[in-house]
Predict the 3D structure of the following.
Amino acid sequence: DTDKQLLQQAIDAAKQVQVALAVVENDEVILFHVTSRGLRESTTWTMRGGGKRVDVKQSSGVAKGFREKVIKELTESLAKDTPLILSGPGHAREIYLQDMKSAGQTRLISSIATSMSGRAGANEILREGLAGNLLEDYAISKEIGLLEEAWMRVSTNGAVAYGLMELTKARNEGAIETLLISADLLRDEQAIIDGTSWQLWCKSLSDIGGEMVQCSTDHDSGQQLLGIGGAIALLRFKI
């Protein structure tokens, strides 16, 4: 049934979203990728070694240089929209957060305190379910991005369709790339499009290589979606 499908869709989406998790201390940063199978360690940057730790307090210039190097290399190693969690026991993660924002990073970045450092700190995030909110935020920000694209196309008379007749025509011409639909409309068995329920109609999108994204109505873009009937399609070409 649809609820099972929606749940599966959410699980699949979470698998595809790779979240990066950096455990940050003043003199060491370890980057992990959070996948559906757990943590994968990626890169370690450190100022430790040689038996002598750099006294960061004495040498803020060295610390700043180290941070710049880490941020540059970390940024280069991640896709630009990969969400990032900065974690760790001290205040270093907050300094990194400020530096990254100042450098114009647009990715979703979340700063979460942990009681431990290193891999233990990363595991703490997963064990406590602290990354869940970020995944949720990521799904919502992706959804809002798609809806914003739809409104832009509406305002510029672009490749977009809404309303029962236009959507039916777009489906029949194989033009639908992504259908954005409110969960309420999808579940409403009384609501009909082209002589069938929305659930069945949406299933048929896979025949034309289209995908469906279920949208929440808990944000302004979702409310706008309800205002035009609960569904809008981004098209491959204008019809």
In short: The chain is about 45% helix and 25% strand. The chain has two domains: 17-130, 139-235.
